[in-house]
Amino acid sequence: MLLTPRVAAVHDLSGFGRCSLTVAIPILSAMGVQCCPLPTAFLSTHTGGFQGFTFLDMTEEMPRVSAHWKGLGIRFQAVYSGFLGSARQIGVVSDFIRDFRTPETLIVVDPVMGDDGRAYQTCTPDLCAGMAQLAEEADVITPNLTEAAFLLGQSYKDLAKDCAHEGGTALRRAAEALSLGGRRSVVLTGASLEPGKTGAMCFDAKTGRTEAVQTDFIVHPLHGTGDVFSSVLTGALVRGAALTEAAAQAAEFVRACAVRTVKQDLPLRDGVDFEPLLHLLWEETRQD
Ligand code: PXL
């Protein structure tokens, strides 16, 4: 019997709106992976489309949690980080990675900073700069096009224009440029190679190959798709999938959730209606 993989998930907990930990925990569990949350902040809702949300910064608590876990000798097959609550957390997460990394540990950094060319309201310039530093420690990063532009220090408009005109060539160039000379794998999300399609451009540092995965594009604005994608990707990777295989599973799950969400005509800010589809992940996962 395979040991149940264990992942430390370093994200915020937003009570309403389906993102971060409320996505990562059920998805990883459905994939037969133990998810140990290390919350970066507790919010009443996520920050996209809600007014007056509460925000409890967990920066002080995080090193205490880390020290306790270390004292207990807990080991993780992966550390998976996302939305951070303050620029100071860059150092905290970096220390966490240093403390728990072994040669076998997979470090996935979703450099959550923004979307559609704009930074999220809590993502300060300091936090953006720190995220780029943190991402240097990752084995795999999962930026969207906005985050890719921030990491590359490029204008989002120019990158989006190149990708719209050149398609695969520009996306491939961006994914490879983000790989730090081939040292880390890159899964660039929201990558469309032709009209009506979307998916990811993947540079695999293990093989040196760049390959795209594509699914049908569901024309509807959706919130939290990046968190669903990165959580499925992380679950598949810790269960031994190759990078493009994991990205293909993640893209297909997001597509299925998007179809369901659009059919229900849910408000954008409610997030992706993924819960009734978790069985797909469960069924796809070899439980041996
Ligand atoms: O989905 C990214 C995300 C995560 N966490 C919080 C957010 C957002 C995007 O808006 O507000 C709190």
Summarize the helices and strands and which ones pair or pack.
Elements lengths: L5 E5 L2 E4 L3 H11 L3 E4 L3 E5 L9 E3 L3 H11 L6 E4 L7 H12 L5 E4 L4 E2 L2 E2 L5 H11 L4 E2 L3 H8 L3 H11 L1 H10 L7 E5 L7 E8 L4 E8 L8 H14 L4 H22 L13 H7 L4
Parallel strand pairs: 1-3, 1-6, 2-4, 6-7, 7-10, 10-11
Antiparallel strand pairs: 4-5, 8-9, 11-12, 12-13
Helix pairs in contact: 1-8, 2-3, 3-4, 6-7, 8-9
Bound molecules: 3-hydroxy-5-(hydroxymethyl)-2-methylisonicotinaldehyde.
The site of 3-hydroxy-5-(hydroxymethyl)-2-methylisonicotinaldehyde has 14 residues, from helix 8.
Précis, in short:
The chain is an alpha/beta fold and 288 residues long. It has helices spanning 20-30, 61-71, 89-100, 125-135, 145-152, 156-166, 168-177, 225-238, 243-264, 278-284, and strands spanning 6-10, 13-16, 34-37, 41-45, 55-57, 78-81, 106-109, 114-115, 118-119, 140-141, 185-189, 197-204, 209-216.
Helical percent range?
40-55%
Helical run tally: 10
* Average pLDDT for all residues: 96
- Structural domain count: 1
Q: Mind explaining what this structure looks like?
A:
It is built from ten helices and 13 strands. It is of the alpha/beta class. A hairpin with a 7-residue loop joins strand 11 and strand 12. It has an eight-stranded mixed sheet with strand order 3-1-6-7-10-11-12-13, sandwiched between helices. The protein has a three-stranded mixed sheet with strand order 2-4-5. Strands 8-9 form a two-stranded antiparallel ribbon. The longest helix has 22 residues. Helix 2 runs parallel beside helix 3, helix 6 crosses helix 7 and helix 8 runs antiparallel to helix 9.
